[in-house]
Design brief:
Shape: globular
Number of domains: 2
CATH superfamily of the largest domain: Spore Coat Polysaccharide Biosynthesis Protein SpsA, Chain A
Strand order of the largest sheet: 2-18-12-15-11-3-6-7
Distance between the termini: 71 Å
CATH class of the largest domain: Alpha Beta
CATH architecture of the largest domain: Alpha-Beta Complex
Radius of gyration: 22 Å
Structural class: alpha/beta
Number of strands: 26
Largest sheet: 8 strands, mixed
Length: 456
Protein backbone atom coordinates (compact mmCIF):
# COMPACT_ATOMS: atom_id res chain seq x y z
CA UNK A 1 0.00 0.00 0.00
CA UNK A 2 1.57 3.34 -1.06
CA UNK A 3 2.46 5.82 1.66
CA UNK A 4 0.15 8.85 1.56
CA UNK A 5 1.35 12.39 1.05
CA UNK A 6 0.26 13.25 4.58
CA UNK A 7 2.19 10.34 6.10
CA UNK A 8 5.32 11.35 4.20
CA UNK A 9 4.95 14.95 5.32
CA UNK A 10 4.39 13.93 8.95
CA UNK A 11 7.47 11.70 8.90
CA UNK A 12 9.57 14.44 7.34
CA UNK A 13 8.51 16.86 10.07
CA UNK A 14 9.18 14.28 12.80
CA UNK A 15 12.65 13.54 11.40
CA UNK A 16 13.40 17.28 11.38
CA UNK A 17 12.43 17.65 15.04
CA UNK A 18 9.24 19.66 14.47
CA UNK A 19 7.13 19.58 17.68
CA UNK A 20 4.20 17.18 17.69
CA UNK A 21 1.70 20.00 18.35
CA UNK A 22 2.87 21.72 15.15
CA UNK A 23 2.55 18.44 13.25
CA UNK A 24 -1.00 18.07 14.59
CA UNK A 25 -1.91 21.57 13.35
CA UNK A 26 -0.37 20.79 9.94
CA UNK A 27 -2.34 17.53 9.82
CA UNK A 28 -5.60 19.37 10.47
CA UNK A 29 -4.87 21.83 7.66
CA UNK A 30 -3.75 19.04 5.31
CA UNK A 31 -7.06 17.26 5.79
CA UNK A 32 -8.88 20.45 4.83
CA UNK A 33 -6.62 20.91 1.81
CA UNK A 34 -7.12 17.31 0.66
CA UNK A 35 -10.87 17.78 0.95
CA UNK A 36 -10.66 20.77 -1.41
CA UNK A 37 -11.08 23.53 1.17
CA UNK A 38 -10.22 26.97 -0.11
CA UNK A 39 -10.94 29.12 2.94
CA UNK A 40 -13.19 31.38 0.85
CA UNK A 41 -15.53 33.78 2.68
CA UNK A 42 -18.43 34.90 0.50
CA UNK A 43 -19.89 38.39 0.73
CA UNK A 44 -23.34 36.91 1.34
CA UNK A 45 -22.05 35.35 4.57
CA UNK A 46 -20.84 38.59 6.20
CA UNK A 47 -21.80 42.09 7.26
CA UNK A 48 -19.55 45.18 7.42
CA UNK A 49 -17.78 46.16 10.62
CA UNK A 50 -19.07 49.45 12.10
CA UNK A 51 -19.07 51.65 15.23
CA UNK A 52 -15.61 51.07 16.66
CA UNK A 53 -13.78 52.67 19.56
CA UNK A 54 -10.98 54.99 18.44
CA UNK A 55 -7.45 54.93 19.83
CA UNK A 56 -7.30 58.68 19.22
CA UNK A 57 -9.81 59.13 22.05
CA UNK A 58 -7.71 57.23 24.59
CA UNK A 59 -5.79 58.97 27.37
CA UNK A 60 -3.08 57.71 29.70
CA UNK A 61 -3.83 57.79 33.43
CA UNK A 62 -2.46 56.22 36.61
CA UNK A 63 -3.71 52.75 35.65
CA UNK A 64 -1.38 52.65 32.65
CA UNK A 65 1.68 51.72 34.71
CA UNK A 66 0.07 48.48 35.89
CA UNK A 67 -1.00 47.58 32.35
CA UNK A 68 2.49 48.30 30.96
CA UNK A 69 4.06 46.11 33.67
CA UNK A 70 1.75 43.23 32.66
CA UNK A 71 2.34 43.38 28.88
CA UNK A 72 4.89 41.73 26.58
CA UNK A 73 5.88 42.99 23.13
CA UNK A 74 6.19 40.38 20.37
CA UNK A 75 7.50 41.14 16.88
CA UNK A 76 7.09 38.83 13.89
CA UNK A 77 10.52 38.65 12.32
CA UNK A 78 10.48 35.56 10.13
CA UNK A 79 10.49 37.27 6.73
CA UNK A 80 13.60 37.42 4.56
CA UNK A 81 12.51 40.31 2.39
CA UNK A 82 12.80 38.09 -0.69
CA UNK A 83 10.39 40.34 -2.60
CA UNK A 84 13.10 43.00 -2.37
CA UNK A 85 15.92 40.65 -3.28
CA UNK A 86 17.13 40.05 0.28
CA UNK A 87 18.46 36.79 1.72
CA UNK A 88 18.31 37.81 5.39
CA UNK A 89 15.81 39.35 7.80
CA UNK A 90 14.21 42.49 6.43
CA UNK A 91 14.52 44.04 9.89
CA UNK A 92 18.30 44.31 9.36
CA UNK A 93 17.77 46.98 6.70
CA UNK A 94 18.91 50.50 7.60
CA UNK A 95 16.05 52.97 7.98
CA UNK A 96 18.41 55.81 8.82
CA UNK A 97 22.16 55.86 8.20
CA UNK A 98 22.87 54.45 11.67
CA UNK A 99 19.54 52.78 12.57
CA UNK A 100 18.03 49.52 11.34
CA UNK A 101 14.46 48.37 11.91
CA UNK A 102 15.76 46.34 14.85
CA UNK A 103 17.52 49.35 16.38
CA UNK A 104 14.34 51.43 16.23
CA UNK A 105 12.21 48.64 17.72
CA UNK A 106 14.69 48.24 20.58
CA UNK A 107 14.74 52.01 21.11
CA UNK A 108 10.94 52.16 21.31
CA UNK A 109 10.83 49.40 23.94
CA UNK A 110 13.68 50.83 26.00
CA UNK A 111 12.00 54.26 26.04
CA UNK A 112 8.84 52.76 27.58
CA UNK A 113 10.96 50.83 30.08
CA UNK A 114 12.68 54.03 31.21
CA UNK A 115 9.46 56.06 31.28
CA UNK A 116 7.58 53.57 33.48
CA UNK A 117 10.39 51.82 35.31
CA UNK A 118 9.20 48.39 34.16
CA UNK A 119 10.72 45.29 32.61
CA UNK A 120 8.83 45.38 29.32
CA UNK A 121 9.79 42.14 27.51
CA UNK A 122 10.67 42.23 23.82
CA UNK A 123 10.52 38.92 21.99
CA UNK A 124 10.98 38.14 18.31
CA UNK A 125 9.35 35.24 16.50
CA UNK A 126 12.13 34.30 14.09
CA UNK A 127 12.19 31.69 11.35
CA UNK A 128 15.01 29.21 10.89
CA UNK A 129 16.35 31.63 8.27
CA UNK A 130 16.34 34.81 10.42
CA UNK A 131 17.32 33.48 13.87
CA UNK A 132 21.13 33.71 13.72
CA UNK A 133 21.45 37.11 11.99
CA UNK A 134 18.82 38.69 14.22
CA UNK A 135 20.39 37.57 17.50
CA UNK A 136 23.83 38.66 16.27
CA UNK A 137 22.45 42.14 15.50
CA UNK A 138 20.68 42.36 18.88
CA UNK A 139 23.83 41.39 20.80
CA UNK A 140 25.07 44.97 20.78
CA UNK A 141 22.07 46.14 22.81
CA UNK A 142 22.93 45.72 26.49
CA UNK A 143 20.36 44.48 29.02
CA UNK A 144 17.75 43.83 26.33
CA UNK A 145 16.70 40.38 27.52
CA UNK A 146 14.45 40.16 30.59
CA UNK A 147 15.45 37.16 32.68
CA UNK A 148 14.25 34.38 32.50
CA UNK A 149 12.66 35.11 29.11
CA UNK A 150 14.46 34.52 25.81
CA UNK A 151 14.86 37.22 23.18
CA UNK A 152 13.32 35.02 20.53
CA UNK A 153 11.46 31.84 19.76
CA UNK A 154 11.32 29.96 16.49
CA UNK A 155 8.44 29.81 14.09
CA UNK A 156 7.72 26.22 13.10
CA UNK A 157 8.32 24.88 9.61
CA UNK A 158 6.52 22.49 7.33
CA UNK A 159 7.14 20.78 3.98
CA UNK A 160 6.15 22.45 0.73
CA UNK A 161 3.73 20.14 -1.08
CA UNK A 162 3.73 19.34 -4.78
CA UNK A 163 0.68 20.97 -6.32
CA UNK A 164 -0.08 17.89 -8.43
CA UNK A 165 -0.30 15.25 -5.68
CA UNK A 166 0.21 17.03 -2.32
CA UNK A 167 3.35 15.03 -1.49
CA UNK A 168 6.39 16.73 0.07
CA UNK A 169 8.53 18.19 -2.69
CA UNK A 170 12.12 17.01 -3.20
CA UNK A 171 14.67 19.63 -4.26
CA UNK A 172 18.25 18.27 -4.01
CA UNK A 173 19.71 21.47 -5.49
CA UNK A 174 18.80 23.27 -2.24
CA UNK A 175 17.05 21.08 0.35
CA UNK A 176 16.26 24.16 2.48
CA UNK A 177 13.77 25.19 -0.23
CA UNK A 178 11.76 22.05 0.54
CA UNK A 179 10.55 23.81 3.69
CA UNK A 180 8.39 26.85 4.34
CA UNK A 181 6.99 28.67 7.36
CA UNK A 182 3.29 28.01 8.02
CA UNK A 183 2.29 31.67 7.87
CA UNK A 184 2.14 33.97 10.88
CA UNK A 185 -0.89 32.08 12.18
CA UNK A 186 1.77 29.73 13.56
CA UNK A 187 2.41 32.37 16.25
CA UNK A 188 0.08 30.69 18.74
CA UNK A 189 1.48 27.19 18.17
CA UNK A 190 5.07 28.46 18.32
CA UNK A 191 4.41 30.34 21.57
CA UNK A 192 3.15 27.10 23.13
CA UNK A 193 5.66 24.62 21.69
CA UNK A 194 8.64 26.86 22.47
CA UNK A 195 7.62 27.16 26.11
CA UNK A 196 7.51 30.95 25.82
CA UNK A 197 3.78 31.17 26.57
CA UNK A 198 4.24 29.30 29.85
CA UNK A 199 7.38 31.32 30.65
CA UNK A 200 5.53 34.62 30.20
CA UNK A 201 2.70 33.50 32.45
CA UNK A 202 5.12 32.17 35.08
CA UNK A 203 6.92 35.53 35.03
CA UNK A 204 3.65 37.33 35.79
CA UNK A 205 2.76 38.75 32.38
CA UNK A 206 -0.89 38.80 31.35
CA UNK A 207 -1.10 40.47 27.93
CA UNK A 208 0.78 40.54 24.64
CA UNK A 209 0.87 43.10 21.86
CA UNK A 210 1.99 41.68 18.51
CA UNK A 211 2.98 43.31 15.21
CA UNK A 212 5.24 42.83 12.20
CA UNK A 213 8.88 43.86 12.62
CA UNK A 214 8.71 45.83 9.36
CA UNK A 215 5.89 48.01 10.73
CA UNK A 216 7.70 50.65 12.77
CA UNK A 217 4.45 52.49 13.41
CA UNK A 218 3.33 49.78 15.86
CA UNK A 219 5.35 51.11 18.80
CA UNK A 220 4.45 49.88 22.31
CA UNK A 221 1.72 52.31 23.43
CA UNK A 222 0.88 52.67 27.15
CA UNK A 223 -2.55 54.17 26.39
CA UNK A 224 -3.50 51.13 24.32
CA UNK A 225 -2.04 48.77 26.92
CA UNK A 226 -4.29 50.39 29.50
CA UNK A 227 -7.28 50.19 27.14
CA UNK A 228 -6.82 46.50 26.42
CA UNK A 229 -6.29 45.57 30.06
CA UNK A 230 -9.45 47.47 31.06
CA UNK A 231 -11.51 46.00 28.20
CA UNK A 232 -11.48 42.48 29.59
CA UNK A 233 -11.44 41.24 25.99
CA UNK A 234 -9.51 38.05 25.24
CA UNK A 235 -8.35 39.40 21.88
CA UNK A 236 -8.34 42.67 19.95
CA UNK A 237 -7.36 43.75 16.45
CA UNK A 238 -6.14 47.17 15.34
CA UNK A 239 -7.82 48.40 12.17
CA UNK A 240 -7.39 51.52 10.02
CA UNK A 241 -9.72 53.36 7.69
CA UNK A 242 -9.26 52.04 4.17
CA UNK A 243 -8.10 54.15 1.26
CA UNK A 244 -7.95 53.16 -2.44
CA UNK A 245 -4.42 51.90 -1.75
CA UNK A 246 -5.73 49.35 0.78
CA UNK A 247 -8.31 47.43 -1.23
CA UNK A 248 -6.09 44.35 -1.54
CA UNK A 249 -5.41 43.96 2.18
CA UNK A 250 -7.21 41.80 4.71
CA UNK A 251 -10.24 43.34 6.38
CA UNK A 252 -12.49 42.47 9.30
CA UNK A 253 -16.12 41.53 8.71
CA UNK A 254 -18.95 40.25 10.91
CA UNK A 255 -20.12 36.70 10.20
CA UNK A 256 -23.89 36.70 9.83
CA UNK A 257 -24.70 33.31 11.33
CA UNK A 258 -23.02 33.91 14.73
CA UNK A 259 -22.05 37.61 14.88
CA UNK A 260 -18.33 36.88 15.29
CA UNK A 261 -15.59 39.08 13.91
CA UNK A 262 -13.78 37.37 11.03
CA UNK A 263 -10.65 38.29 9.09
CA UNK A 264 -11.09 38.02 5.32
CA UNK A 265 -7.86 38.13 3.33
CA UNK A 266 -7.79 38.95 -0.37
CA UNK A 267 -6.98 35.29 -1.10
CA UNK A 268 -10.18 34.31 0.75
CA UNK A 269 -12.47 36.53 -1.32
CA UNK A 270 -14.33 34.80 -4.17
CA UNK A 271 -13.72 36.52 -7.52
CA UNK A 272 -17.41 37.39 -7.87
CA UNK A 273 -17.23 39.26 -4.55
CA UNK A 274 -14.05 41.23 -5.29
CA UNK A 275 -15.95 44.42 -6.16
CA UNK A 276 -18.03 44.34 -2.97
CA UNK A 277 -14.96 43.57 -0.85
CA UNK A 278 -13.14 46.55 -2.37
CA UNK A 279 -16.04 48.94 -1.72
CA UNK A 280 -14.61 51.46 0.77
CA UNK A 281 -18.07 52.72 1.71
CA UNK A 282 -19.16 49.20 2.71
CA UNK A 283 -16.01 47.72 4.24
CA UNK A 284 -14.37 50.72 5.85
CA UNK A 285 -11.53 49.14 7.81
CA UNK A 286 -8.46 47.07 6.95
CA UNK A 287 -6.52 44.89 9.39
CA UNK A 288 -3.11 46.34 10.32
CA UNK A 289 -1.78 42.99 11.57
CA UNK A 290 -1.29 44.64 14.96
CA UNK A 291 -3.14 42.67 17.59
CA UNK A 292 -3.54 42.05 21.31
CA UNK A 293 -4.42 39.00 23.34
CA UNK A 294 -4.77 37.77 26.90
CA UNK A 295 -2.04 35.21 27.54
CA UNK A 296 -4.06 33.23 30.10
CA UNK A 297 -7.06 32.94 27.81
CA UNK A 298 -4.83 31.90 24.90
CA UNK A 299 -3.24 29.16 27.01
CA UNK A 300 -6.64 27.91 28.16
CA UNK A 301 -8.06 27.92 24.62
CA UNK A 302 -5.05 25.99 23.29
CA UNK A 303 -5.46 23.44 26.09
CA UNK A 304 -9.20 23.09 25.43
CA UNK A 305 -8.57 22.51 21.71
CA UNK A 306 -5.55 20.21 22.03
CA UNK A 307 -3.33 22.87 20.47
CA UNK A 308 -5.46 23.31 17.33
CA UNK A 309 -7.16 26.71 17.28
CA UNK A 310 -8.93 25.93 14.01
CA UNK A 311 -7.77 28.96 12.03
CA UNK A 312 -9.03 29.18 8.44
CA UNK A 313 -6.80 27.59 5.81
CA UNK A 314 -4.95 29.75 3.29
CA UNK A 315 -3.77 27.78 0.23
CA UNK A 316 -0.73 29.57 -1.21
CA UNK A 317 0.56 28.35 -4.58
CA UNK A 318 4.17 29.11 -5.53
CA UNK A 319 7.17 27.42 -7.16
CA UNK A 320 9.59 25.44 -5.02
CA UNK A 321 12.36 27.89 -5.95
CA UNK A 322 10.82 31.37 -5.74
CA UNK A 323 13.50 32.71 -8.10
CA UNK A 324 12.83 30.04 -10.77
CA UNK A 325 9.31 30.12 -12.26
CA UNK A 326 10.07 26.90 -14.16
CA UNK A 327 10.64 24.90 -10.95
CA UNK A 328 7.81 22.62 -9.76
CA UNK A 329 4.63 24.24 -8.52
CA UNK A 330 4.01 23.75 -4.82
CA UNK A 331 1.30 24.44 -2.28
CA UNK A 332 2.20 26.10 1.00
CA UNK A 333 -0.31 25.60 3.80
CA UNK A 334 -0.65 28.88 5.66
CA UNK A 335 -2.85 30.70 8.14
CA UNK A 336 -3.08 34.30 9.34
CA UNK A 337 -2.60 35.21 12.99
CA UNK A 338 -5.32 37.85 12.68
CA UNK A 339 -7.82 35.10 11.85
CA UNK A 340 -7.76 34.10 15.53
CA UNK A 341 -10.19 36.96 16.13
CA UNK A 342 -13.02 34.51 15.33
CA UNK A 343 -11.81 31.95 17.87
CA UNK A 344 -12.36 33.99 21.03
CA UNK A 345 -15.70 34.89 22.56
CA UNK A 346 -15.79 38.64 23.12
CA UNK A 347 -12.99 39.50 20.69
CA UNK A 348 -13.04 43.14 19.66
CA UNK A 349 -11.37 45.72 17.43
CA UNK A 350 -10.22 49.32 17.74
CA UNK A 351 -9.69 51.97 15.08
CA UNK A 352 -6.15 53.35 15.09
CA UNK A 353 -4.53 56.23 13.29
CA UNK A 354 -2.59 55.57 10.09
CA UNK A 355 0.60 56.36 12.00
CA UNK A 356 0.42 52.86 13.53
CA UNK A 357 0.67 51.30 10.08
CA UNK A 358 4.01 52.00 8.37
CA UNK A 359 4.94 48.70 6.70
CA UNK A 360 7.82 48.40 4.27
CA UNK A 361 6.84 45.97 1.52
CA UNK A 362 8.54 47.67 -1.44
CA UNK A 363 11.35 50.13 -2.16
CA UNK A 364 8.61 52.76 -2.64
CA UNK A 365 7.88 52.44 1.09
CA UNK A 366 11.58 52.40 1.95
CA UNK A 367 12.29 55.63 0.05
CA UNK A 368 9.56 57.42 1.98
CA UNK A 369 10.67 56.05 5.33
CA UNK A 370 14.30 57.03 4.71
CA UNK A 371 13.37 60.50 3.49
CA UNK A 372 12.83 63.73 5.42
CA UNK A 373 9.07 63.06 5.45
CA UNK A 374 9.60 61.04 8.63
CA UNK A 375 11.42 62.09 11.77
CA UNK A 376 12.60 59.83 14.59
CA UNK A 377 11.90 61.24 18.05
CA UNK A 378 13.61 60.63 21.38
CA UNK A 379 11.04 57.89 21.94
CA UNK A 380 12.16 56.31 18.64
CA UNK A 381 8.70 56.68 17.14
CA UNK A 382 8.56 57.60 13.47
CA UNK A 383 6.30 60.55 12.79
CA UNK A 384 5.36 62.04 9.43
CA UNK A 385 6.13 65.75 9.24
CA UNK A 386 3.67 66.16 6.36
CA UNK A 387 1.21 64.06 4.40
CA UNK A 388 3.48 61.44 2.75
CA UNK A 389 3.94 61.73 -0.99
CA UNK A 390 2.89 58.94 -3.36
CA UNK A 391 6.07 57.24 -4.58
CA UNK A 392 6.02 54.92 -7.61
CA UNK A 393 9.43 53.59 -8.70
CA UNK A 394 9.94 51.57 -11.88
CA UNK A 395 10.05 47.94 -10.77
CA UNK A 396 12.42 47.08 -13.60
CA UNK A 397 15.18 49.07 -11.94
CA UNK A 398 14.23 49.59 -8.27
CA UNK A 399 12.54 46.38 -7.05
CA UNK A 400 15.54 44.97 -5.15
CA UNK A 401 17.47 46.64 -2.35
CA UNK A 402 20.72 46.31 -4.30
CA UNK A 403 19.23 48.07 -7.34
CA UNK A 404 17.60 50.73 -5.15
CA UNK A 405 20.76 51.53 -3.16
CA UNK A 406 22.82 51.71 -6.35
CA UNK A 407 20.45 54.29 -7.85
CA UNK A 408 19.44 56.16 -4.68
CA UNK A 409 22.51 56.52 -2.44
CA UNK A 410 20.65 59.26 -0.56
CA UNK A 411 16.86 59.69 -0.63
CA UNK A 412 15.66 62.93 -2.18
CA UNK A 413 13.86 65.47 -0.02
CA UNK A 414 10.15 64.65 -0.28
CA UNK A 415 8.77 66.91 2.44
CA UNK A 416 7.35 69.32 -0.19
CA UNK A 417 6.43 66.59 -2.69
CA UNK A 418 2.95 65.37 -3.55
CA UNK A 419 4.05 62.50 -5.78
CA UNK A 420 7.18 61.10 -7.40
CA UNK A 421 6.81 58.72 -10.35
CA UNK A 422 9.98 57.25 -11.86
CA UNK A 423 9.85 55.42 -15.19
CA UNK A 424 13.19 54.26 -16.50
CA UNK A 425 16.70 53.81 -15.14
CA UNK A 426 17.31 57.07 -13.26
CA UNK A 427 20.11 57.60 -10.76
CA UNK A 428 19.76 60.21 -8.04
CA UNK A 429 22.59 62.46 -6.90
CA UNK A 430 22.78 63.56 -3.30
CA UNK A 431 20.77 66.49 -2.04
CA UNK A 432 17.97 66.26 -4.65
CA UNK A 433 14.77 68.12 -3.72
CA UNK A 434 11.35 67.11 -5.07
CA UNK A 435 8.48 69.60 -4.99
CA UNK A 436 4.83 69.01 -5.95
CA UNK A 437 4.10 66.33 -8.55
CA UNK A 438 7.16 65.05 -10.39
CA UNK A 439 7.37 62.41 -13.10
CA UNK A 440 10.59 61.14 -14.64
CA UNK A 441 9.87 59.37 -17.92
CA UNK A 442 11.72 56.51 -19.56
CA UNK A 443 14.38 58.04 -21.79
CA UNK A 444 15.42 54.65 -23.16
CA UNK A 445 18.84 54.97 -21.55
CA UNK A 446 20.08 55.59 -18.03
CA UNK A 447 19.38 59.08 -16.77
CA UNK A 448 21.05 60.97 -13.95
CA UNK A 449 19.66 63.56 -11.55
CA UNK A 450 22.53 65.92 -10.69
CA UNK A 451 23.58 66.50 -7.11
CA UNK A 452 21.49 69.24 -5.48
CA UNK A 453 18.93 69.30 -8.34
CA UNK A 454 15.46 70.70 -7.65
CA UNK A 455 12.63 68.83 -9.37
CA UNK A 456 9.14 70.20 -9.73
Amino acid sequence: MPVSGLSRAQQKMTDAGVPQRAIDVFTSFYSQLEAGATGMIAEAEVEPLTDLERAADLAVDDAAAEAVASTAVIKLNGGLGTSMGMDRAKSLLPVRADLTFLDIIVGQVQHVRRSYGVDLPLLFMNSFRTHDDTLAALSRHDDLAIDPLPLDFLQNREPKLRADDLTPVDWPDDPSLEWCPPGHGDLYTALETSGVLAALLDAGFTYATVSNADNLGAAPDPAMMEWFAASGAPYAAEVCRRTPADVKGGHLVVRRDDGRLVLRETAQTPPDDAEAAADLTRHQYFHTNNLWFDLEQLAQTLADRSGILGLPLIRNEKTVDPTDPSSPKVVQIESAMGAAVEVFDGATAIEVDRSRFLPVKTTNDLMLLRSDVYGVGEDFRLRAQVEPALVDLDRRFYSTIADFDARVPEPPSLVDATSLTVKGDWRFGRGVVVTGDVRLDDEGTAGSIPEGARLG
